[in-house]
Specification:
4 helices; 2 domains; mainly alpha
Length: 103
């Protein structure tokens, strides 16, 4: 009967093997670690745009959901269901997607 030490040893060997394969896969051809490049600062308008994008999305989803004659479960249905052919006032979610795209 094994007391678990053999299984732990085998897991350790497998982990070392996987690590060596991953390291070999991500190494550059010269054998050194890949270079990390610095990212320049993001312009203020990029931060403003990405910060503002959730506002029309949440607002549009709220309005489109409230205009549906049936209850909408956001956990069970996709956002696209609000723009489906049988959805009421589907233009609202279309305008929402356009507004988010502009952001």
């Amino acid at each position: 009967m094994h007391d678990g030490r053999e299984a732990l040893h085998q897991l350790g060997v497998l982990a070392c093997l996987a690590k060596s394969r991953l390291t070999a896969h991500f190494m550059s051809p010269e054998g050194s670690a890949p270079n990390v490049t610095a990212v320049r600062n993001v312009p203020w308008w990029g931060l403003l745009s990405s910060g503002a994008a959730p506002v029309p999305m949440v607002g549009g989803l709220t309005v489109a959901t409230s205009l549906q004659p049936r209850s909408v479960d956001p956990m069970a249905e996709t956002v696209s269901a609000l723009a489906a052919v049988d959805a009421a006032e589907r233009w609202v979610i279309t305008v929402t997607f356009l507004a988010v795209g502009v952001c």
